[in-house]
Amino acid sequence: MKNVDLRSDTVTRPTPEMREAMCRADVGDDVYGEDPTVNKLQELAATMLGKEAGLFVPSGTMGNLSAMLAHCQRGDEVILGNKAHTFLYESGGISALGGVHSCQLPNQSDGSLALEEIKNAIRADDPHQPITRLIALENTHNRCGGTYQVPAYTQEICDFAHLNGLAVHLDGARIFNAATACGMPVKAMVDSVDSVTFCLSKGLCAPVGSILCGSNEFIRKAHRIRKQLGGGMRQAGILAAAGIIALESMVERLKDDHARARCLADGLRQYPYIILDNGTAATNMVFLSVSDEVKHSTRQISSLLEKQGVRVGAVGEKRFRLVTHYWIDDEDINHTIEAFGMIKK
Ligand code: TLP
């Protein structure tokens, strides 16, 4: 039986090369700063992103949380999108743990925030109001369909933020996908932001971990917060070893995931009862809805697909997300297209 798991690129298992590197990894106690493999990964990531320093964290969520708590004090406000991962899917950590208030602006369909709306959202110097401190962006944008923003957009927001004494954090969980789609080095994508988190454990295939990058001073603060959150790891070099392979040999191939996502979208277009989101697939995600012509419920559709060995993410009423990654090949794409042909029967 086939197992085509398109629920997310988080389901990726480490490659044989990663497992090998994990076995051989030189390790030490990272809480003492003595794990050579973690140190190497952090330096490599910071260099690739053009930032002074990097911090290895167990998850993207902890990377974003540590960053936002490092930028903001209790009672400060962060401007973010109403479809941002940091707003929707991180358990409200910034307010629960940091007392940080959020101002949610509508994400445009491409995942961007309108500069005019940001301008209007900045608080007056008035004791009734929280202090606007930070703008949080996301690239690629998950809930907006895996869409990406070009560096000029990020630069425009950052220029405005910096002129107004605000910092900008980028949730770049899939920033390497964004860079691939733009055909630009990742450094150019994050040049203007003050801090950025990216994930090693999505399209880059490492089993665990994300990196937060920023200035030396910022990373020193975030390092303390990571410890407060319980994210100080010991012989984490075992995990970092896979992260190094992720950065050295998995970035180039992301274009294959994007090509397969486009191929999947093109194949599904033949079915009149499948409504693909406009612009899908911009990167490695395909978002679609199934029309009422198909009488099955969301659950029944998922289960019909599963019976054929295809797993997809249900993200709403008859609405699905399919994410391509390293463990999905051309045959899996064809099999998935065929499986969608069965849901009408
Ligand atoms: N996203 C997951 C789910 O949480 C939705 C997925 O399957 O896509 N930022 C973005 C943009 C993300 O998509 C995710 C994970 C994270 C941050 C958090 O990363 P982790 O799961 O490592 O905490």
Model description:
It is built from 14 helices and 13 strands. It is an alpha/beta fold and 345 residues long. The protein has two domains: 11-250, Type I PLP-dependent aspartate aminotransferase-like (Major domain) (Aspartate Aminotransferase, domain 2); 253-340, Aspartate Aminotransferase, domain 1 (Alpha-Beta Complex). It has a seven-stranded mixed beta sheet with strand order 2-8-7-6-5-3-4, with helices on both faces. The protein has a four-stranded antiparallel beta sheet with strand order 9-10-13-12, with helices on one face. Strands 1-11 form a two-stranded parallel sheet. The longest helix has 15 residues, at 254-268. It is globular and about 60 Å long. The relative contact order is 0.18. Ligand TLP binds at residues 8, 10, 59-61, 85, 89, 138, 142, 171, 173, 199, 201, 210.
Q: What is the mean predicted local confidence, pLDDT?
A: 97
Spell out which ligands are present: ligand TLP
**What is the distance, rounded to the nearest whole angstrom, between the alpha carbons of the first and last residues?**
21 Å
Rough shape? globular
Sequence of secondary-structure elements = EHHEHEHHEHEHEHHEEHHHEEHEEEH
Architecture blueprint of SSEs:
Elements: E1 4-5, H1 16-24, H2 36-49, E2 53-57, H3 60-71, E3 76-81, H4 85-88, H5 93-98, E4 101-105, H6 115-121, E5 131-138, H7 151-163, E6 167-171, H8 175-182, H9 186-190, E7 195-199, E8 210-214, H10 216-228, H11 237-249, H12 254-268, E9 274-276, E10 285-290, H13 298-307, E11 310-311, E12 313-316, E13 319-323, H14 330-341
Parallel strand pairs: 1-11, 3-4, 3-5, 5-6, 6-7
Antiparallel strand pairs: 2-8, 7-8, 9-10, 10-13, 12-13
Helix pairs in contact: 1-11, 2-11, 3-10, 12-14
Bound molecules: ligand TLP.
Ligand TLP binds next to helix 3.
